[in-house]
Structures are given as structure tokens and as C-alpha cells.
Amino acid sequence: xxxxxxxxxxxxxxxxxxxxxxxxxxxxxxxxxxxxxxxxxxxxxxxxxxxxxxxxxxxxxxxxxxxxxxxxxxxxxxxxxxxxxxxxxxxxxxxxxxxxxxxxxxxxxxxxxxxxxxxxxxxxxxxxxxxxxxxxxxxxxxxxxxxxxxxxxxxxxxxxxxxxxxxxxxxxxxxxxxxxxxxxxxxxxxxxxxxxxxxxxxxxxxxxxxxxxxxxxxxxxxxxxxxxxxxxxxxxxxxxxxxxxxxxxxxxxxxxxxxxxxxxxxxxxxxxxxxxxxxxxxxxxxxxxxxxxxxxxxxxxxxxxxxxxxxxxxxxxxxxxxxxxxxxxxxxxxxxxxxxxxxxxxxxxxxxxxxxxxxxxxxxxxxxxxxxxxxxxxxxxxxxxxxxxxxxxxxxxxxxxxxxxxxxxxxxxxxxxxxxxxxxxxxxxxxxxxxxxxxxxxxxxxxxxxxxxxxxxxxxxxxxxxxxxxxxxxxxxxxxxxxxxxxxxxxxxxxxxxxxxxxxxxx
Amino acid sequence: xxxxxxxxxxxxxxxxxxxxxxxxxxxxxxxxxxxxxxxxxxxxxxxxxxxxxxxxxxxxxxxxxxxxxxxxxxxxxxxxxxxxxxxxxxxxxxxxxxxxxxxxxxxxxxxxxxxxxxxxxxxxxxxxxxxxxxxxxxxxxxxxxxxxxxxxxxxxxxxxxxxxxxxxxxxxxxxxxxxxxxxxxxxxxxxxxxxxxxxxxxxxxxxxxxxxxxxxxxxxxxxxxxxxxxxxxxxxxxxxxxxxxxxxxxxxxxxxxxxxxxxxxxxxxxxxxxxxxxxxxxxxxxxxxxxxxxxxxxxxxxxxxxxxxxxxxxxxxxxxxxxxx
Lengths: 507, 325
Known about the structure:
The complex is a heterodimer of chains A (507) and B (325).
Chain A: H1 2-27, E1 41-62, E2 69-77, E3 82-88, E4 92-116, H2 138-154, H3 158-170, H4 177-182, H5 188-201, E5 206-213, E6 217-218, E7 223-231, E8 234-238, H6 242-246, E9 251-256, E10 262-265, E11 267-278, H7 281-289, H8 293-300, H9 308-317, H10 320-334, H11 343-354, H12 356-380, H13 384-409, H14 422-439, H15 441-462, H16 465-473, H17 477-489, H18 496-501
Antiparallel strand pairs in A: 1-4, 1-10, 1-11, 2-4, 3-4, 5-7, 5-9, 6-11, 7-8
Chain B: H1 2-14, H2 19-30, H3 36-40, H4 42-51, E1 59-63, H5 72-76, E2 82-86, E3 96-101, E4 105-108, E5 113-115, H6 116-127, E6 140-143, E7 162-168, E8 171-179, E9 195-199, E10 206-211, E11 214-216, H7 234-248, E12 252-260, E13 264-271, H8 278-282, H9 286-296, H10 303-313
Antiparallel strand pairs in B: 1-6, 2-3, 2-6, 3-4, 4-5, 7-8, 7-12, 8-9, 9-10, 10-11, 12-13
Helix pairs in contact in B: 7-10
């Protein structure tokens, strides 16, 4: 009965999984492949604050006058709140969420679907604004006059003037006039603000633009800052960062001026998170357009119905079973030995953040230094738990050191080593020492490298875009994965390594 | 790829048992979970064996909590030689065999010298579960060091040779002698580099030997032939093995027996997850034998039946001398 039961169960799981998959694919028209050029973006703002218990009013800028991009669709999700939008000329438009009585943690959402457009936003040709030259005084005035005077001499029109000023500010040498105006350690925002003041000072209308970069998967997007100046009867963008200049169509202008993004009355601890992601909206929209109720429900109750932040989380979560399936195959059918059952999958997750080459390098460095520390600790004859705790501390120190070092050397990748599973690394180091002592260094290295190789394989599989896409769009495929895992659970044939181990018996 | 399938088919025909099948078809169904603690904790195994009147190495003391570690040197003062081992250890890890001592130092079987600090630290590690299955807190046992039977003198490099017998539902099915080598550091585990020789179940003489997955005829360190040797007390050994089923209730288990010069056969430990290397040592598949037992089990009523069955059915068909042909 045991076997039949298992076969029937896994057969059922596989059939259900595949049936839903085929239905969604053929009937609802969900995409099978991640589209290579998806130019649709979803942006989500989450506002959170602690309500004081009474009327509360939160206002937040929403994108308007978006240049090369167009807002296809937007929605405000805020249970119980009244919503109003007001226009603030010269800055943008604000959405105002208000409620009579709010208690506890409040979460408000704004969502927008953004798409590039060929027809430029007409607002860039709106009437020339009034010039508001800034009031510089004393030494600042002298410095400003110096910069502007030089820029005016070497430029022919508003565009060259503005870009010269921006360039000098960006390349400000310490002690110079530009550096004096900027102050110590200027941020992009500061550079943009000062540049706007100087350009206005030179008689050209200009303003700061705050926007976000549209990135495929960003859970905590930060605002980027650049500026606009008015020339030839329209507003023209001027980017401070080189990388922004290269990809202007991926910068979504949000609001103008230096006002705060969000404001709150009747609460405290206001903070916002912005997430962006490439959207599958268009592909699924065809499905949504079909009017049958069941189909609509199916879309509504899929992962697409979740807030963007959770969607990004589930993209990672849903590929873990694929890695685990590979691990099961490698352990039970191939017969690879690894430290700890699921350690390689966790390592693979860390590799997703660091990239494979850097991940392997960092892993080796951390384990090597950790082993050295562990062998030294061995002489102190510590008890197990304090010893493990010491290794955890050492591992964290190593990671901190590596992060600082690689950042100073200019490796952005280094910043993500912090995501390495610290406790897993510690246990790996501890077990490796034990194996080293009991079975010798050879065996320890063999198992250590084996674990890392399995981790790398899992990473390669889990990081395939098609895999990530398939399991996110069709999570029901996990049922099939479960079915296969169940079947392997009763696989009683030889492991590949056993064929080698028992080869003398096969003669 | 084709080659793999051919190897697999050949192994299948020879009835070689793989680890997946061992777990799925023998261990899981015939070893009830609640019986595991009896063999996983060697102090319990000892009590059990003592109750059944089976000889085990004498227990000098058990260290259960950290505080007792301080009193350890005083406990050890009485003994010239002893063995320290974790009660829940596996695969021979964490065992220290002390063969002699000076006033302040202990001489371990692998030749190294240890002092009180080293021993105490080792015991502390055992207590915190470094060597135990799943890392649970553990106890350390100090027990009698076996003075092995001189029969094995010529084919052992330090350490203690032992006899491992696989018992399925009370029927001994396969046996091997494990001989420590220099490579294994005096330990009798095959994967640590010890030699394993197959045993003829009928007579208790050793057959061919394997060392690191290769067939060998002589002990690599002493150069003496390891095959064709009679294991003393074989009658007792095979009976002990058959009785171990009633002792633990485990349908599929391995029993490790040492032969002491003075005290005869002693049960060293029982194992609910015995390894499969025994098949290489015997150049025979376990599965064939397990299936024979399964088929004929209803006819075996008494202990004597089971022993006689094992000796008759699992006898080696041809005599083997020295080198493997």
C-alpha cells in the first residue's frame, strides 16, 4: 500500500500542478518566458506612520510631468482614508490622505504603472517661469559671482552655461570657489541644489528634480536628484551623475523643488519605502480583460495581487524549492557529501546577492580566516557554546573587515557580503575543524569544496531568469517539484558514488 | 552513462545493498524509532547487555556534567590504561584510547602524549555534544581498555581489532573483522583506513581483505597475511549476535564484538545504522542474504535455529587461501 499511495499522491500533485500551469498558459495567456524588453514598470510607495489617535493627514508627492515616461495607471490603496490630489504649481502634485480617527500603525500605498512614451510630456513646453534669483551674501556672493562670471565667459547659450556650472560643481577641488559653495562632502542633492541656485543667479530659470531610477527589482529605492533649466522655450534636464545621463528613460521625475517628499499631521514616525520592478502587467492584462469571473479571481489571488515588496520577496522564496530539489538529487541520487543538510542552498541564496565569482571568493576567505581563528581558539580549550559564539563574533568581524576593504578598493559587490548566513558559516567552520581533526585535512577540504560546489550549482540553477520567472508566474509548479521530491524519497536504487565505491563487487 | 547502467545492473545482480535501499527497505521498516536510544546511547546499551548477562567492557565511570570533569584526574589515577568515549558518538569519532601512563602524562594508542588538561578538555567537548548525533548534550564514558586476543597480534597496528556482525531479524547474515592500521590511527573504522576482512559464517575463518576499497592479502603495516585465520570463540560470537535482536528490538543492526585476552568476547557497541563496506570485505552482496532470511524467517523459531540457519546458508562456498584469485 505504501508505494501505491505514494505514486498516486505524487501523480495527483503533478497532474494538478501541470493542469493549472497549462490552463494559465494556454487559456489565460500568461507569459512563459520573461520578456526580454519589458518596458513597463510598476512603482509602489508605502507610507507608514504611527497615528496619534485622532484626525490624521498625510500628503505625499505623486509623479507628474514625467518627460519621457508616462503614467499608464495609478491607484491609491488606503482603507478608510479620503484621498484628494492638489496641484502645487512649479513643484508637482500631491496626494493627500486624510482620516477622522486613526490609531496604531497606518500603512498607505500609492501604486503607479509607468511606460516610456514617444510623445513628450506637453508640460515641458509650458510658459517660461519667473526667475527667482537666490540671495547670496558676503563671501558666498563673491564665490558665486566668480563661478558664474567664468561660466558666462566660456559658454555660448543657456545649455552650455548650465552644464559648465554643473560640471565645475561636480569636479570641485578643495579650497576652490565651487567647494566653498557646496560645503563639506556634498551629496548629489546638494550639488543639484547649488547648481540650480547658480544657474538662476546667472539669469536662467532652473529647478531641482527629484525622481527615482527604475530598476528591475528594487525593494528600497532611493531618490535620485538632477536639475532642469529653461532654455529655448522648454525645460531641459541636466544630470549630475554620468550613469543617469546614459539611461534617462529609466529615471522617473517625481517632483520639483526641495520640499520634503512626504508630510504628516496627526502622527509620528513617518517613513516611506519605494519599490520598483519590471512589470508583467501587460501580459497579464490580456488575462484580466477576459470577463469570466473564475479567471479574474485566479489572477487576483495570484502573487501579482501582493504589494510589490512582498512580490520581490516571493521571487526569491519560490526558487528555493528548486535549489532544494537539486540538493536532494545531488545527495540521494549522486551521493555528494555536504556540511549540513541545507547549508549549500543558503550559501546559494547569499551568492544571489554577491554574484558567483565574488561569492565563492568571499566564502573561501571567510572560511579560511574562520578556520585559522578556530584552530587558534582550540589551544585555549574553550567549551562548545562559548567557542561557537566566539567564532560567530570572529566571522562577523571578518565580514565587516572584508566589506570595508572591498568598498575602499572600489568593489561595490563587497557590500553584499553582509548577507552571508553567519550562523551557517560558523557551523561550517566548526564542522570542518572536527572533520579535519578526526579524518584529516584532505577529507575536510573535500567536504568543504563539495558543499561549495553544490552551493554554486544551486545558485546557477536558482539564478536562471527563466526559472525565477516560471516559478513566480506559475507557483503551482511547486506541486510538481514536491511530487518529484516525494518520489526521490522512495528511490532505493544505487547512488552514483556507490557505483564507484562498490566497483570491485561489479567485476 | 551506459557504463553506469551496466555497473548498476551488475551490482543489482550480485545483490549489493545501496545506502538508499538500506534506509528505505531495511532500517526504516524494521528499526522502530523508540529502540534507537538503546543503541545510540552506549551507557544504555551497557546496562541492557549487563541485564541480559552479556559481557561488556567494564565501565569505570561516567562523566555527565561539566563539574565532574574536575574530578576526572582523580578517577583516572587508579587505572594504567582506559578508553574515553562519547556515549552517543558515531563512526568512532571522539574516542581516545590510553594504553599507558607516566606520572603526569598519558600515552594514547596513536602514540601521542596527553596530559590531564588535554583529557579534561576532550571530555568537556564530549559533554557539549561535539561528537554526538545531532549535537545534543552527551556523556563521556571511561571504560576498560580491551587487551585483544593475541590471535590478532600479527595483523594489527596499534588499536583494537573487532568483529562486526550484521544481524537481520535475529539472524546473523554477514561478518567482518576490522583491523586497525597506521593509516587509521589505531581506529577500527574502514573509512578511517582500517582493513576489513570478510568472514566465513560457518567456520569463522577470515576471507579476503579490503583496504581503502582495494583487495589486499597482507596487513600493510605488519606484512602478515590476513586471510584464512580462525577467529577464536566463533560459536559464542555468532550466538551473541543472534541474541542482540532480543536485546534491542532492532530488526536491522550491526554488533561490534572485541575479543579480550582474559575476558573473552565483549560487546563493544550496537549500531542501528551499520555501514555497507562489509559487502566489499566479503565480496558479496547483503541484499541476497537479507532476502533469504526474509523468505525463511517463519521456519526459524528458536535462537539455535537462527544460528544454525546462518552457519548453513551463509557459509563461504570455497576455501580461500592467502591471495585472492
